[in-house]
Design goal:
Beta Polymerase, domain 2; 7 strands
């Protein structure tokens, strides 16, 4: 589905179609075409109406394209990713948004569920000044809103790290290993998303393309600075989750060592008992201890108890127990 916004005569309106004359130099009309959940027919229409290169249209129809920026003639093509973080599912939900921009028009292609585009389109429906600033300024506004949505997601991820860290320190559990590895995987996915987008915004901020004016480069620089901070946060999160994992594994190893030591001590305590019971259980004549036949049983129990108490006292004195 394609929704068209046209700014003419000082007002922005939603129109059913675009007159090709509006896209020519000197027409005085600014156009935004928002393509949601594009179909091959939508792609063909974009290529025919806006003269987009077929390779760029093919890229825009893909759902998971890598962030990038490049030019096709006088058309600037940018791909960025929006984000949704689902803590319960241990996953980042990311979908690309494709931008085609010239000084006269802007085309956005997305899955139709991007919060940033919905927000900006609502603003365009209320006021004409947003599209009146120009297609590049409108693209910046969408990107700024898109990157702004990363901040609460990063806060949620940081809170998740705090909770896991507290559990590792207060209530270590072997089952936390899977959760920590899931967080580590999410942070790696975050870095794969943020760092390429930082490079894309950096190129826009440095005015590598004729479509970006000096004034707009300042605006893109602000968005670039946000992504730089996010990339730094992602690296800090990566180091932090590595430390949490190391601490967790050390705690689990310590628990295992304590259990092994307990088993070893118990087995050692039962060692003399096993020897004595095995010795006096043999069907051969053995030297009698003082007393009659009835006293032999109590002598054996006394020797077993004395051996156990002696070994236990030795363990306590040596710090093994």
């Amino acid at each position: 589905m394609i929704r068209y916004f046209a700014h003419r005569d000082g007002a922005t309106q939603v129109v059913d179609s675009v007159d090709p004359a509006w896209l020519r130099d000197g027409s005085g009309v600014l156009v935004w075409a928002d393509v949601a959940a594009p179909t091959p027919e939508d792609g063909a229409l974009l290529g025919e109406l806006f003269g987009l290169h077929e390779l760029a249209v093919a890229d825009a129809l893909e759902s998971t394209h890598h962030p990038k920026v490049e030019t096709y003639g006088d058309v600037l093509y940018v791909v960025l990713h929006g984000i949704n973080f689902h803590a319960d599912e241990h996953a980042f939900d990311t979908h690309d948004t494709d931008f085609f921009v010239t000084p006269r028009w802007l085309v956005t292609v997305s899955d139709g569920q991007r919060r940033s585009i919905a927000h900006v389109s609502a603003l365009c429906g209320k006021s004409g000044r947003f599209l009146a600033e120009g297609p590049v300024a409108l693209m910046h506004r969408i990107m700024d809103t898109m990157i702004g949505h990363y901040l609460p997601e990063l806060d949620e991820l940081e809170q998740w790290l705090d909770d896991i860290e507290r559990h590792v320190l207060e209530r270590p559990d072997q089952h936390l290993t899977a959760e920590i590895l899931a967080v580590k995987r999410d942070i790696s996915a975050l870095r794969r998303i943020v760092i390429p987008q930082r490079d894309v915004l950096g190129r826009l901020a440095r005015r590598e393309f004729d479509q970006i004016s000096l004034e707009m480069s300042y605006r893109f620089r602000d968005v670039y600075d946000q992504l730089v901070r996010m990339a730094d946060d992602a690296m800090i999160f990566q180091d932090r989750v590595t430390g949490i994992l190391d601490a967790h594994l050390a705690s689990v190893s310590n628990q295992l060592a304590q259990a092994s030591k307990l088993i070893a001590v118990v087995a050692t305590l039962f060692g003399p008992l096993t020897v004595l019971t095995g010795l006096y259980g043999m069907n051969v004549p053995l030297p009698h201890l003082p007393g009659g036949e009835a006293a032999q049983f109590w002598w054996v129990l006394t020797l077993m108890a004395a051996a156990s108490v002696t070994m236990f006292a030795w363990f306590r004195r040596s710090g093994w127990w």
